[in-house]
Amino acid sequence: MGDQLGIIVLIKQVPDIEKVRFDFETGRLDRSSAEAVINPFDLNALEAAVQIKEAVGATVTAISMGPKAAESALRDAIARGADRGILLTDTRFAGADTLATSYALSSAIRRLSSFDLVICGEKTIDGDTAQVGPEVAEFLGIPHVAYVEEILEADKKRIIVKSRMGRNYYVLALRLPGLITVTKDVNAPRLPTLRDKIRSRRAEITVWDADSLSEVADTRLFGVSGSPTTVARVYAPHAEKRKGMIFRGNPEEAAEKIVGVLKDLRVVG
Ligand SMILES: Cc1cc2nc3c(=O)[nH]c(=O)nc-3n(C[C@H](O)[C@H](O)[C@H](O)COP(=O)(O)OP(=O)(O)OC[C@H]3O[C@@H](n4cnc5c(N)ncnc54)[C@H](O)[C@@H]3O)c2cc1C
Question: Ligand 1, atom 19: nearest CA belongs to which residue?
């Protein structure tokens, strides 16, 4: 990869949240009810990678784990400036919780052997845990900074970023190889041109199944078998309305009734 930075962007395909329906019987999103799009925060991650590529030179690899149909997300990423796409797809990856997802993604990165920077979205709009980025960094044994709002400098050795955690901003220099997760404030993702879209249709997407990662990973730790957590129940919290009482009569009578209720509730003695 020479002097060029090797940047990996993790991209998840998610249902269009404006249109998707929730099946309360099964507690799952009915993914067939809406078209799939790139997770919006991952568009920011991709844009950040492409801007670094334009500024200092880089090769940008987009990786996604998902069904075969997620290939379209990788083509979209190529149309927006990624150089290549890798899809992890296999029934053995299915049913993964965040840990097994992160293990599979980090194993794919490990297989690439040479990389400098991994960029993720801060979270997804369907799972919304914000766990995958930091977990991938831990599996790879590299430092990470989450919630990056601005990239101040990047070169082969380090990246300087501004990150917001709670009410505070932190300016941090991250030694590479490292990982960052970005917020929507980091940039405004570009739209692909028609020419780029047509070009991306012809691009070859590399497809890896679980066995493709067997030299760098324990394949039993993918999917359901590698997931220590299970979803026991999904439900919308019951919203309790404010309970009101009307005390009728003249002001003295009403005040007496209010005091009576407050005494019953042990609010006053
Ligand atoms: C017990 C359990 C079972 C589950 N079973 C299923 C299932 O059968 N099918 C299913 O679709 N989901 C399943 N999920 C959800 C699945 O674990 C999450 O979708 C996945 O771990 C990502 O978590 P998240 O969406 O919260 O990502 P976050 O941690 O919020 O994402 C942060 C960033 O990580 C990257 N990222 C996250 N996921 C991917 C990905 N797949 N590919 C590339 N980059 C990614 C993106 O850059 C993203 O912006 C299950 C979850 C649990 C807990």
Answer: 127
